[in-house]
Amino acid sequence: MFLNPKGRQVLVNSVVDSAISYLMAAILLPAETIESLDQKRRTFIWSGKGRTNGARCLVAWNQVCMPKEKGGLGVKDVAVQNQCLVLKLLHRLHHPANSAWAQWAREEVDLSILKGKNAVGPHWEALRSLLPLYQSITFVDVGDGRATDFWNDCWTGKVPLPACFSNLFSHAKVKEIQLLLERNEKKKKFSFKKW
Asked: What's the distance, Cα to Cα, between the start and end of the chain in Å?
């Protein structure tokens, strides 16, 4: 059976990308793995065979991975998709309504820095590596403050405190500190807990 490049592109988008999505939702793939996947997808789209060379590739790969609305071919950028799926996992940790794993993790792990006795291994390292990005694109409802990182979460406005008070942050002895809010009928009291 013969497929033209457009038909092979449809197969890449619907079959190949779907097959790796489950894995990418759990871990950050190493750069070498992403490069290998891109090479196999590129080869399949342009030649349909096991190998191809640059002369057969009609469009640069970064252009292929752009959305159709921006002149690309709409093939997903695996690195971006992987990062987004792991960010979704981080979001699930912070909003655990329907996730048994997230509910368990909230009891075992300090959410504001993703550290704890059970937060070991490459999976947690990947989540920790994306935490600054997650904190920069989300805002925090302080609640009781147990999941609020005083310095790095955006809980006072649109940016974290070090962006507004860089001199103060540079003098802080403790950079990883949790904001706790103790509610009392008559007054609110803020306190801080060192990790």
From this structure: 61
Yes or no: say if 24 and 78 are a contact pair by the CB < 8 Å rule.
Answer: yes
Phi, psi of 115, deg, nearest 5: -125, 150
In order, the DSSP letters of 71-134 are: TS-----HHHHHHHHHHHHHHHHHS-TT-HHHHHHHHHSBTTTTBSTT--SHHHHHHHHHHHHH
Tell me how far apart the alpha carbons of residues 43 and 51 are, in angstroms, rounded to a whole number: 6
Quote the pTM value. Answer: 0.71
Q: Give the pLDDT confidence of 92-116 residue by residue, as tens digits.
A: 988 877 888 888 888 888 777 787 7
Q: Write b or e for each residue in 103-123: b if 16 or more Cβ atoms lie within 10 A of its Cβ, otherwise e.
A: eebbeebbbbbbeeeebeeee
DSSP 69: G
State the residue for tokens 């920790």: 128
Residue with tokens 């590129």, as numbered in its chain: 42
Place of tokens 């752009």: 66
